[in-house]
Design brief:
Elements lengths: L1 H14 L4 E2 L5 E2 L1 E2 L3 E5 L5 E4 L2 E2 L7 E5 L8 E6 L5 E6 L1 E2 L5 E4 L4 H4 L3 H18 L19 E4 L4 E4 L2 E5 L3 E4 L5 E3 L4 E9 L3 E9 L2 E11 L6 E2 L4 E5 L10 E7 L2 E3 L1 H5 L3
Parallel strand pairs: 3-10, 11-13
Antiparallel strand pairs: 1-2, 4-7, 5-6, 5-8, 8-9, 12-15, 13-14, 15-22, 16-21, 17-18, 17-20, 18-19, 19-21, 19-22, 22-23
Length: about 270
């Protein structure tokens, strides 16, 4: 019996990834869909996939790994004092689920041509604000939940809507009930407030350096476009506007054009 218990303890210990901070102050290993805040000496240059990464005045920076990211994350630091260091960070893959959603009105599954034009404009508006490259430093804050509740949809799950395959789900769905208060998980600037066909009452917040977050299917929006907000400030309430089968918050995170997993950011995945 003792031998069995010892084996189980060893198995559990060796099955849990050991997080260790590297010279960038980033815990390894990384995960698909995560965003990571690092720090270098002032004057050092950070390059990720051949592109210079924006830094704050204290040398902090952020990178994001897309949901399909499979390679090692290679980060190059050219030192002000001379020479360079290349960090090759391991990335843990994620197993994504298949999720079936039934009972949606047909107009939301196969909309008419005029509606498709509106959907395209809605998407373009969101892409435009995701591309914002501001110098806000709220990306450095420790992220908090925008609202607590049952997880009703996972990021990256392959969705089947009314029996028809669709693109993977790009957010974390939280269902605390109609009217539940939503707060800002990070501070920043409200870059978009819009009533969209698919996502209903929608808000995007810029947290700086390409990191942004989106909130969809809201019942009410409190924060105004263009306003600066602090972490924990009320921004709206949970609803079921747009394409939704019930009240929930669709919460997404982006690093520029990369869709990220809020569950990884929170440490629940």
């Amino acid at each position: 019996m003792k031998n069995i218990l010892f084996f189980l303890m060893v198995f559990v210990i060796t099955s849990i990834p050991c997080l260790a901070k590297n010279g960038l102050n980033i815990n390894e290993p990384l995960k698909q869909g995560g965003y990571y805040v690092g720090k270098v000496m002032l004057g050092d240059k950070v390059t990720f996939h051949g592109k210079t990464v924006k830094q704050s005045s204290d040398g902090s920076f952020v990178i994001g790994l897309g949901w399909k990211y499979k390679a090692k994350a290679n980060i190059r630091v050219d030192h002000k004092a001379g020479g360079h260091t290349i960090y090759r960070l391991d990335v843990i893959p994620h197993d994504y689920e298949t999720e079936e959603v039934s009972g949606l009105p047909p107009k939301y599954v196969d909309p008419p041509i005029k509606v498709k034009m509106r959907i395209a404009k809605d998407a373009a508006d969101v892409r435009a604000v995701r591309a914002i490259d501001s110098s806000l430093n709220n990306f450095k804050e420790a992220i908090i939940w925008p609202v607590k509740g049952r997880i009703s949809g996972r990021f990256g799950s392959h969705r089947i809507l009314n029996g028809e395959p669709r693109n993977p789900h790009t957010g974390l769905d939280i269902a605390p009930g109609q009217g539940a208060l939503i707060v800002a998980p990070l501070g920043g600037k409200v870059s978009l407030v819009s009533d969209q066909y698919l996502t209903g009452k929608t808000m995007v917040i810029d947290h700086g350096h390409g990191l942004s977050s989106v909130y969809a299917h809201m019942e009410k929006t409190f924060a105004l476009q263009g306003h600066l907000i602090n972490q924990g400030d009320p921004i709206g309430t949970v609803g079921s506007s747009g394409r939704a089968t019930g009240p929930h918050l669709h919460w997404g995170i982006n690093w520029y054009g990369e869709r990220l997993n809020a569950g990884v950011a929170l440490g629940i995945e």
